[in-house]
Design brief:
This protein is mainly alpha-helical. The chain is about 80% helix and about 10% strand.
Amino acid sequence: MIGSSTRSRLFELRRDRSAARHSAELLDRKREVLLREIARRGRLRNELRAVVAAAYAEARLRLGIARVELGMNGIEAAALAQPARQPIDRRDISVMGVRIPQLSTNVAPYRAFYGAAATTESLDEAGAAFTALIPQLVALAQEEIAVARLVVAMRKTTKLVNALQKIVLPRIEANIRAIVDGIEEDERDEGVRRRVGRVADRR
């Protein structure tokens, strides 16, 4: 006779198989969403990289002109007079369970705090160029962080999907087949015993 524990185990395995299949489908959909988001943000990041590189090159050029006119000591002295007041605000959003920081900063127009007598217009232009670069750098940092976190999440999700599809589900299927085969064999043996019993009763 087939024990109730065997049938109960078969029921549990089938329930586990259904849950594993459902989990694999959900994770696969999550992976697709993450891949699309990585592609979208990756394009935005690359665009920002190009913009920042061009703006930074321009700011460096203006700073180089000021260095020729004032010397490095004059630039450093002017820099010490400038207050560092560029706070960055942050809030997090969730993309398929991945925390993505949203960064923002309110940058006021450049204002020189050093004395005009000891500086040149080129230094003012360099300061304005670097100040204008700050929001672009913050935006780039946001997308760099977002892409990095999304890639990590996508890799973890891929590993989970592969584990479910290639390890967990095949193992459950093998256990189900083994139990079903055992049940079918026991049922055949039981059928043979009944036929033998009926033949014996007739004699």
